[in-house]
Amino acid sequence: MPPLLTFVARLSDGLPLVANTAPDFNQGVTQEHKNQAKDILRGLGGTASSSAKMSIDTSNSLVFHYLVRDSLCYLTLTERSYPKRLAFLYLEEIADAFLESLANDHGDPGWRDAIATTARPYAFIKFDMVIQRRRKDFVDPSSRQNTTKLNEDLADIQSIMRKNINEVLNRGEKLENVSNISNNLVAESKKFKWGAKKLTWQAMLNQYGPIAAAGVFVIFVLYMKFFW
Fold this sequence. Notes:
Helix 1 crosses helix 6 and helix 2 runs antiparallel to helix 4 (128-136). The chain is elongated. Helices cover 55% and strands 16% of the residues. The protein has 228 residues and is an alpha+beta fold.
């Protein structure tokens, strides 16, 4: 069975640029899988700790694989029995083709500005046709073409991190919580700064207020005695 679901997204915020579902196996891909894919992409969020490659197990014998390259994330969903090495070779080919298409349309490095300024989801949906053609080459893992690709690939597949979908999605929640905590700390620090200024003024008033009042009283008495 070929890669079932494919996404290309902007790494900084997870904005999907193009998505494709294998038409012959659409029933095997649910809305939950699509939502999980989007959550994974948003959870990456351009963090420095994001792995360049990762496999993520789901609860129903399917596995997400993603590849990060050039500020973009390429994600696919396959059956657990599908060779992991071949899944990443598929993502590599999608990445090569997508970057080539961007360079042809926008120039290099102009395509980077096009990606950075895109606000509309699926703005590069025309690339869907390319994904469809590439996916057909990866339908049968045992084909001679794919066997040759696997034999020629020298990547160390064992070094690719593997996680559970719950770990990844919980990490996204934790990152969001960290952001909220950071915002709260900024707000609290502003309150503390204002409170510190207020206390400083009160301390100065308590220290010099009586002296100032006494000075004003003496001046008043002298004025009344000599000028009234």
